[in-house]
Amino acid sequence: MSRSGGSAAERRGRVLSGIQPTGELHIGNYLGAVRNWVRLQDEYECFYPIVDYHAIASPFEPRELRKLTEDMVVSLVAAGLDPDKCHIFIQSEVPEHTELAWVLTSLAPLGQLQRMTQFKDKTAGGGESVNAGLLMYPVLQSADILLYKADRVPVGEDQSQHLELARMLARRFNNAFGETFPEPQVLLTETPRMLGLDGQSKMSKTKGNHIGILDPPEKIRERMATAFTDPQRKRREDPGRPEVCNVFTWHGYFSDSATISRVERQCRSAEIGCYEDKMLMADVLIETFAPMRERAAELRSDPNQVAAILDAGREAAQEVARETMREVREAIGLWQTLNRPVTA
Ligand code: TRP
Fold it and tell me: At 27, is the pLDDT very low, low, confident or very high (cuts 50, 70, 90)?
């Protein structure tokens, strides 16, 4: 019970998840993460930082970063994150993230950081050119979570190891300095990883196998035309095998059940060809994301709206972050002339 606050928000639980500023969301981001974030905002107090400090641990272009960040904000709001229900903010605008990260760095075992799968993948063969930011990446991520005393963290399977570290750092801190942080639980997203247009690897912008949620209809049709289908179906009159077709899997994600069973039947009987099927899929995507394209256009026509959303998000985040850092400083015995607690 020593944890601060018994407010309604805290009793209903706190959710935090971060996303890198990669520009406009693609449909894989939406399906795998953001759609779930939208659902959570009614049930929990949600903090959704755009983690630009994480982004700079990998090569980046300063002039691009700002644009990628703005496009991410626009996408998130267009996708249904409601600034009246959740806190959307820029990580670097709340300096307590890096402040707490430093404190946690001193509790984090070097060996465990070096053994992180993502670290090993990203630095394979890097040698001298590997920067320490990549090593500390999961510590900063832990700080993001613990700063808000989040008890639930919706992430994909690939982040479980990082979450384990956050949990361990919470325990270590609590054991060493007194009960301060709840151990955050992973909320694993049930959606399977969505493959890209190539039908081979996870959808990602770097692979270029994606469709953006804000892509205009012509672009969606153009991109869908390049999608990989059943590799054995060479001619239009060959019967197709939906069970091995990535586009059919996409129908499963986005189309209604009538469409799914019709496509399955007509593909098997070669009543429709792959191209027709892909254009059907394109139409479904165009329709599904139409309201988001509209909302995004509206936001873009009024930059003040975006600024106001981020101001509100930052202020709400800052308030919690400042209080947690005050507790942390107190707990670990840092000098507190500036932030001393208000005495009665
Ligand atoms: N590492 C996460 C990713 O690449 C992003 C992230 C940063 C995050 N901080 C976080 C996710 C805190 C959950 C909680 O997807």
Answer: very high
Q: Coil, helix or strand for 115? A: coil
Q: Which atom number of ligand 1 is nearest to the Cα of residue 156? A: 15
Distance 343 CA to ligand 1 centre (A): 37
Residues 171 and 73 reside in one and the same domain: yes
Instruction: Report whether residue 144 contacts ligand 1, using a CB cutoff of 6 Å.
Output: yes
Calculate mean pLDDT across residues 313-322: 98
What is the per-residue pLDDT for 3? Answer: 45
CB of 19 closer than 8 Å to CB of 48? yes
One domain, residues 243 and 164:
no
Whether residue 154 has its Cβ less than 6 Å from ligand 1 = no
Told to judge if 120 belongs to the known catalytic residues of this protein, a careful annotator would answer: no
Residue 6 lies in a domain: no
pTM score over 0.90: yes
Count of domains observed in the chain: 2
Tell me which residue range forms the domain holding 74.
14-193+302-332
CA of 217: how far to CAs of 5, 212, 289, in Å? Answer: 48, 11, 10
Both 289 and 142 in one domain: the answer is no
154 CA: nearest ligand 1 atom = 13
Options 67, 85, 120, 122, the catalytic residue: 122
Closest C-alpha residue for ligand 1 atom 15 = 19
Residue 168 to residue 314: CA distance in whole angstroms: 27
